[in-house]
Design a protein that fits this description.
With 761 residues, the chain is an alpha/beta fold. Helices cover 34% and strands 19% of the residues. The strands form seven sheets. It has a seven-stranded parallel sheet, sandwiched between helices.
């Protein structure tokens, strides 16, 4: 079952629908791109990748206010990449391009942990300054500046060589407030002299958004609204920098897309990032690469849960995962000696409590210690023989994706196992302090990291080959949360054949659903020119929620796309007349297509239909208009769903049933409230009675069981006012049970369809 999420956007001025400036690529940007290309950099980008990087970076900056547009309204741009796909390279490239186009300052909200701030600062220095042999005349980096640094920063701004000032700041309100105080100083404003600032929010869905969004949406307009501290500090920073552009970078944009459209952080435009060659993401792991064989299921009885399955000893699946990882290190690092891969890492993500993370680490440490001791025994010792037998049991599956020409025998690998076990280090990443500790990756061949939330987002596990994640939930999971746990995605083609991911069955299902959701979301974003003019739609499995509920407005409501749904297409005379004209033309055009008959004993019970293509059905729905939000939203969700079903490899929907109800009868009479302009009686005729031999199934039974059905109903209104039409058309839509879905819609605006103002003379 699928879920569609729709966030309908109000109309925006034409100014925000188009690119805000023309961008020039000059020396600094070109130099950066060239420095990232192969062979200058082993793990750089190809020539084709460089072209894509140029195009996408230019697109981002073109949606930003120009550097001298101080008096312009602030704007927000969304940049969406895949997890671990190179978002940092994108905003580093954007930095170089901004310098070429006259900008004097960029602020980076560089995550919530010091290690992420340091990571961003070092990356900017490495890719922008070091590549110029340490020449920092073009870029001046000031991480987490204090007010006392005002003179130093002003001095750099006034330098004759006009460098761009780069300010990475921790995404915590105290640090952002310090920066706000600095940029609010009169001397600072004077030297900036009307220049605008770019604010880049890395992991923009984390911490930045207002956690009181849902609570506030329940309040009246005149009630005081609450704001979370970091969100409030970001708004104050933006207010202190007129004309700024706020650029949101994330791989999980669900929250950014679905927040209230009145929110100052709601994006107006967007750019999709293309991963570089060699990227391995969800599609590769779960669908495309080796038929999903890189993902191994953890048996249900071995899945730890602190409430439902409190394990008393180390599960066999974790022991197997350790063996897989040791064999991976032996194969990649020792036997094949893959260039630039002198270690491999393993991540164990069992639970969100420190106590149990520590327990898993203890199990791993004790197991590795016992293996080390066993391998120190003399040849033929029972413990040593048994351990090698267990490794040999795992070995065929560990190397099954290697070509025969490169695949060793177990006897080739066997002597390497001891060295790998002896050259290891395990880490408990349980706290923010742990996450801030730099790991000396080159110090040993095998790293094993145990933790939970600290390993979810932003924490880079270098050369991650093996993931063991027995976490599962008995309720629906946030799509963006499980997406951020995918630390095992990334650029790892050099050793992908030795990568393995261990998950419970329910997690595998959720990740497969997430892949469909992610690709559908990207398709939706790719299909619209601007978020300012497009409906915001997301497909989800029913086991997935889009994001944490506290940031979403209460207007995000859930309804089933299942069974029969009637509509009300009567909000204005103008709309009724437009629909009548369209339907009469449509029926005339298709009069020879009706080839399905539903004949019962009266004209009221005699119907006709035909199968129309999915595209024709979409065209029909696009042409039939509604003036109320509920039905307009349902129409939009139906169109989106039809496109999804038609594109789905598993379903490949070919047609939709169109049925003209009671086509030979006069318009069917129905009760009607002319004030509210709504049907007051049942739209559908009921089933025949027990004494009626015709066995009429009722109007709701006149459907095609294998697809979507669109029923056309022609209604007449008795005792209607003179100014009101005597008859009108409306639709009913049936969603086959086999295709049932959920959808969410943001009913923030009492929006009408097709820009119809529904005004009456």
């Amino acid at each position: 079952m699928e879920t569609i999420i729709i966030n309908n956007q109000s109309s925006q001025s034409a100014a925000v629908r188009h690119k805000l400036q023309t961008v020039e690529m000059k020396e600094n940007f070109n130099q950066f791109v060239e420095s990232q290309k192969i062979p200058n950099k082993k793990h750089g980008i190809t020539a084709a990748g460089a072209v894509v990087l140029r195009e996408e970076t230019c697109d981002i900056l073109s949606h930003c206010n120009p550097h001298n547009a101080y008096d312009c309204q602030e704007t927000t741009h969304l940049v969406v990449g895949y997890v671990q796909s190179g978002k940092t390279m994108s905003f580093t490239a954007l930095t170089a391009l901004a310098l070429d186009n006259g900008y004097r300052m960029i602020i980076y909200l560089a995550g919530t942990k010091n290690n992420l701030l340091d990571q961003t600062s070092k990356r900017l220095k490495k890719d922008l300054i070091d590549v110029q042999q340490g020449n920092n005349n073009r870029y001046k980096i000031h991480p987490n500046p204090q007010v006392t640094e005002e003179e130093e920063i002003i001095g750099h701004i006034e330098s004759s060589y006009k460098p761009i000032i780069l300010i990475p700041v921790l995404k915590q309100y105290q640090h952002i407030d310090n920066l706000t105080e600095l940029v609010s100083k009169s001397d600072f404003k004077e030297v900036m002299d009307g220049e605008t600032v770019l604010i880049i929010d890395d992991e923009a869905d984390q911490a930045s958004l207002n956690s009181y969004g849902r609570k506030n949406s329940k309040k009246n307009d005149d009630e005081e609204k609450q704001v979370s501290s970091t969100y409030d500090s970001i708004l104050r920073l933006r207010a202190a920098l007129p004309g700024n552009t706020y650029i949101q970078y994330t791989a999980t944009p669900q929250a950014n897309i679905l927040i209230s459209m009145q929110d100052l952080l709601s994006p107006k435009s967007h750019t999709l990032l293309t991963p570089g060659e060699g990227y391995v993401g969800g599609k590769a792991f779960f669908r495309e690469m080796f038929d999903g064989g890189l993902v191994l299921e953890i048996p249900k009885e071995q899945v730890f849960h602190k409430k439902y399955n409190l394990l008393q000893q180390m599960p066999q699946s974790l022991r197997d995962a350790l063996m897989y990882h040791i064999l991976a290190v032996a194969m990649v690092v020792e036997y094949l000696q893959v260039e630039d891969v002198n270690y491999l890492s393993m991540m164990v993500h069992p639970d969100n409590t420190k106590k149990w993370n520590k327990k898993f680490k203890t199990w791993i440490d004790n197991e590795l210690k016992s293996w080390r001791k066993a391998l120190s025994k003399p040849e033929g010792h029972e413990d040593k023989v048994l351990l090698y037998e267990n490794f040999e049991r795992i070995f065929p599956k560990a190397v099954e994706y290697y070509d025969e020409s490169e695949r060793p025998s177990f006897e080739d690998i066997k002597p390497l196992i001891k060295d790998v076990i002896n050259d290891r280090k395990t880490y408990l990443v349980n706290t923010d302090k742990d996450a801030q500790t730099e790991i000396d990756w080159d110090n040993c061949k095998m790293h094993i990291l145990v933790g939970a939330e600290m390993l979810n987002r932003g924490f880079t596990v270098e050369k991650l080959a093996t993931t063991y994640m027995p976490r599962y939930t008995t309720s629906a999971t946030n799509a963006d949360t499980i997406q951020q746990r995918c630390r095992f995605f990334g650029y790892k083609m050099d050793y992908i054949k030795s990568c393995r991911v261990f998950l419970p069955e329910i997690s595998i299902t959720n990740y497969c659903d997430y892949i469909d959701h992610e690709e559908e979301l990207r398709t939706t974003l790719r299909s619209c020119d601007s978020l300012a003019e497009a409906e915001r739609k997301i497909l989800l499995s029913e086991r997935l929620r889009p994001t944490r509920q506290n940031v979403l407005p209460i207007s995000v409501v859930y309804t089933k796309l299942r069974g029969m749904s009637e509509t009300q297409a009567f909000t204005s005379n103008k709309l009724i007349e437009a629909n009548t004209q369209f339907i009469e033309s449509f029926l005339e055009q298709h009069k020879n297509d009706f080839n399905i008959d539903y004949r019962y004993n009266t004209e009221d019970r005699t119907h006709r239909g035909f199968k129309m293509s999915v595209e024709d059905a979409i065209d029909f729905l696009n042409s039939f208009r509604f003036g109320n939000f509920k039905d307009a939203a349902r129409k939009a969700s139906t169109i989106r769903y039809l496109r999804y079903l038609a594109a789905s490899e598993n379903i490949n929907l070919q047609y939709v049933y169109f049925i003209q109800m009671a086509f030979n009868a006069p318009a069917r009479k129905r009760g009607f409230d002319f004030g509210d302009r709504k049907i007051t009686t049942n739209l559908f005729a009921g089933q025949s009675s027990a004494t009626d031999s015709t066995n009429y199934p009722g109007d709701k039974g006149i459907v095609g069981d294998d697809s979507i059905t669109i029923q056309l109903h022609h209604l007449g209104f008795e005792n209607h006012p003179l100014e009101f039409p005597a008859h009108a058309y409306t639709l009913a839509i049936n969603y086959s049970e086999s295709l049932a879905v959920n959808y969410c819609s943001n009913e923030e605006h009492n929006q009408t369809d097709d820009d119809d103002d529904d005004s009456e003379d």
